[in-house]
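Intended use. Records like the one below are meant for learning the mapping from a protein sequence to its folded structure. Do not use them to infer anything beyond what is encoded.
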Amino acid sequence: MLKHIVLAMTISVAIITPAQAIDINIPGADKTVPVEAYKNYNYTNESLEKALSDKEEHVAKKLKSYHYRDYEITKQVQYSKNSLRAVQAHSTIIRLHSDTDSMRLVMPFSSQHGMYTQKQDGQTLEINNQKIDFSIMADTTQHLNQLNKKNRDLHRDIKKFSNPSIGSALWFKEKQQSKDNNEIYTTGIQFKNPKNKLKSYRMAFTYNGGGSEGALIDCHVENMIANYIVPSIQLLPDTDSYSESKELYGFVYKTPKGLEQKIGYDINNDANHVYKTAGYEQSVDVSSTIRGDESMAAQYTKMLEFMTNIGVNLGVKEPQYAIVWNDGIPSALIDIYNPDGESLIVVFTYDDSNRMLTNWIAYNLKESKLSHDEIRNIAESVKIKDKVSLTNQKIQPLSEAFFII
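Structure written out for the chain above:
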């Protein structure tokens, strides 16, 4: 079984970026959703769009009263809108590793806190203030097929489908009664490993059904599986072919393969290691002396403010904001991605001693030998040595009121 994560999220989104539509024949599929919606990081809902519009009007009016120039107003409006979107609409990336496989999937919703354990199957999600369970299993195809046969009497709805990301797959919904006579739904997918048909994966949500709230959760679960999770699933290639692991004060991170440390220091439990090559520079900092509010929420807010400002100055209108759970270890990631020029990623996380690792990667895809996906895989691969549990790590930024505008 793959390792498990406990998450909490709020889900209520619509997509506003036009693109090739989703084409998948399972419940919840929405042809108005772009096929690469999970990559766009441009998620919204009606209340957020109104908040963005109000923010734009307020900031523009305020700056005009101070006689700012038009180009200055444009930059500040973009900054304030990006800041608001960063707080309310970042994504969640889940990376899971077993002895032979690595998997990555995306859920485009705000992750708030989590727990990691190898033994516990249940993970907690929050949809419209209702908690549900989410599980990922990896086992032999024979075992999971036997599990399906065992569950045939649970009012099963089954639908076969195919998708480029996972090939032929099975969508299912099971219904059973709880001890207090409530309806319990389990909705998910099962698919074989394209490289090893003897191994399969099962992902499923389990939640209370019935009533208007249950119907709403059911709708959101189907929508999320069809439009976001299924298209985003990746069985990752071996990252060791182009990267290698390094360790610094118990943090394990990756750098491009064969890249030697150029400069750095290690003084009083604070350290900095720098790696450079053409089109790529990585600076890894570990600090035990964090200024101001040490909480991850506060540090994330400060980093969002700084990186959003950089993104505006580089002309990147929509930085990518995400929480990454790499085998249960949570990190915050911000990617100022410019395919035609200078780009910047920052990733940071804490250990239980309240030391913070900050991993800066400046890159230019026109000069680097690495692709954007390879750089992202390097950035997302942060672990803590010998650590199997991080509980209730708050990964949600503070209110946008803490930003400059």
